Amino acid sequence: MSSTSPWQDWHGTGLVVGCGGIGQALLQELGRIAPGLQLVGVSRQDWRLPGDPLWREVGFLPLDLTDDSSLSALAASLENRPPLRLVINTAGLLHGPLLQPEKRLSQVNRQALELSFAVNAFAPLLLAQAIESLFSPADPFHFASLSARVGSIGDNQLGGWYSYRAAKAAQNQMLRTLALEWARRKPKGCVSLLHPGTTATGLSAPFQAGVPPDRLFSPERAAKQLLDVLAVLGPQQTGQFWAWDGQRIPW
Question: Taking residues 64-83, what's their average pLDDT?
């Protein structure tokens, strides 16, 4: 982004939730382009390396997005900081010991559905609930959460991936609904769903083989693209679903 980036004039607290590849890259890029934001990275464990100057100015707060008491503790820890101006949730779950993308109906199971919905659908809304009082009513703010193009019902041409698709679609509906509420109660805010594209992180690692090299983004490139999208959005665009290149994605 250029030296005239709107982020230059933002002051307050910037919160990045989920500090994997994209989360860390967002913190690094924000440290470069938004000097007025006090940055805090939020995750289950502190990812910062002791003595690494890159993270010297970035705070850390612990959070388990599936635990209500942890969400409440996060909000309490932020009360004495400057008001929130930017919140980006990057946490997501696609695969793990108890969860793999389903190729057919016979592979669907209740435990995997519940786990996917807990992280990919419920968590962003419960995060917003926990911290909503910490946004300043006097200043514009962004609340953004990573979604996925596969969560688009209108764009679904391949099927499969039942739990992940459905959970991301549910997140989209919940945050669309939140945007409509906050447009009345917090009219300077902008709520956005963001598709980062396929990014070279652990989440997409098992599924990168068929991705063209020019469409497999580094975390650094993905972070810059996402911030470029957010930089041109405001209250008039709240509650929309955006791709990494600024194009609207159908619900």
Answer: 97
Per-residue burial over 208-224, b if 16 or more Cβ lie within 10 Å, else e, is eeeeeeeeebebbbbbb
Return the closest-CA partner of residue 219 out of 4, 39, 18.
Answer: 18
pLDDT of residue 1: 37
pLDDT at 52 over 90: no
pLDDT above 60 for 2: no
Phi, psi angles (nearest 5°) of residue 30: -65, -35
The SS3 assignment for 169 reads helix
Taking the C-alpha atoms of residue 179 and residue 142, their distance in angstroms, rounded to an integer, is 11
C-alpha to C-alpha distance for 137 and 101, rounded to whole angstroms: 41
More confident residue, 187 or 2: 187
pTM listed for this prediction: 0.93
CA-nearest of 215, 243, 249, 214 to 229 is 243
111-170-79-136 Cα dihedral, nearest 10 degrees = 180
The C-alpha atoms of residue 201 and residue 207 are separated, in whole angstroms, by: 10
Return the number of other C-beta atoms located less than 10 Å from residue 187's C-beta: 11
**Nearest in space to 84 (alpha carbons), one of 23, 125, 38, 123:** 38
